[in-house]
Amino acid sequence: MDFDELEEQELDNPNSMASRLQEWETTGEWRDPKVERRLKAKLAAMEKEREEMDAEAKVKAEQRRQRREDKQAKEAKKLAAKGGVKKARRIRVLCLHGVGGSKALWATQAKRLLTAFEKEEIECITLEGQEDCTSTEAVENLEVFFGKKDPKLQYAECEFDERNWITYEDNEEVLDWMQDELASLAPIDGIIGFAQGANFAAMLAGQSAIGEGEPLSFVCLISPNAPGYARPLQRLFQEKITVPTMIVWGEQETYDVGMGMSTFLAGKPIEKCGKEAPSDHVKEFFQDPEVFTHSGSWSICAPGKEAEEQLGKMVEFVKTHAKP
């Protein structure tokens, strides 16, 4: 096996390359010492790049924290000038849609959820993705159920790691943008995300937990994908995330459902690592997450009467943890 073949097989993933390096060192199956040297050099370079990205993320986090404190100080000064009585406000929740979504589509997809929240005077704000959706499969699947609603958006182009789990090449840039949006929309108490939106909600929760992002009182993750995105963001997931979390998933969900890219996975094995559902991997990132399981598949609301129970638990969860 030459280095170019190895590099293509490992998808430039430092964790996978490190694993292969350890495996080959243990078994002594090196076929070419040049491969070993080049692999180690490549791995070292990638680790250095990741360290630099982590350091840059910390600088940006400190800048955001300073802006947040300055804003809070100004608001406190204004409040004091008005007698120091803080007006009550509604709970505010940021909603993140799935691949091919938009504000218009979310209003249709999540109608029952939005109605249940509105009855409890919980305000929902939808953040649209900033990229056009390139997956024709995702668009076609959505149009079957919801008609031709434009635009078709996403937060980032999805890719697959060596396990065929979802990851994103530009997740750092997307998280920077989302943090700016959270700051501009403040106050935001928590986030509800569906599919791709759930993936990024998990990342935002990780940022909040380590003080790198806007503070969140809770996150609700509906049908998250297998978390390949966690490996390049180890700083967010190396410790249990303490942000209160609720995970909603269906017993009929599979590892490729909802990706809108199953044609790319046709015939390719997806590693399950001993777990039946993607959500089983995601819940391990969080400290004591609340999990709601329904009998359906990939959807925002459970089927039939189960939806009433799901929405009731979600409302209770939000009202318990929000701090308006």
UniProtKB/TrEMBL annotation:
**SUPFAM superfamilies, from UniProt?**
alpha/beta-Hydrolases
Start and end of every Serine hydrolase domain?
Answer: 90-254
Q: Which GO terms describe its cellular component?
A: cytoplasm; nucleus
The record's region (Disordered) falls at 1-29, 45-79
A GO molecular-function descriptor: hydrolase activity
| Keywords from the UniProt entry | Hydrolase
Q: Which Gene3D superfamilies match?
A: alpha/beta hydrolase
Which superkingdom heads the taxonomic lineage of this protein's source?
Eukaryota
Respond yes or no to whether keyword Hydrolase is given for this record.
yes
Q: Where is the composition biased (Acidic residues)?
A: 1-11
Q: Where is the composition biased (Basic and acidic residues)?
A: 45-78
Q: Which Pfam families match?
A: FSH1 (PF03959)
**InterPro entries given in the database record:** AB_hydrolase_fold, FSH-like_dom, LovG
* Cited PANTHER family: ESTERASE OVCA2
What is this protein's name?
A: Serine hydrolase domain-containing protein
Q: Which organism is it from?
A: Alexandrium catenella (Red tide dinoflagellate)
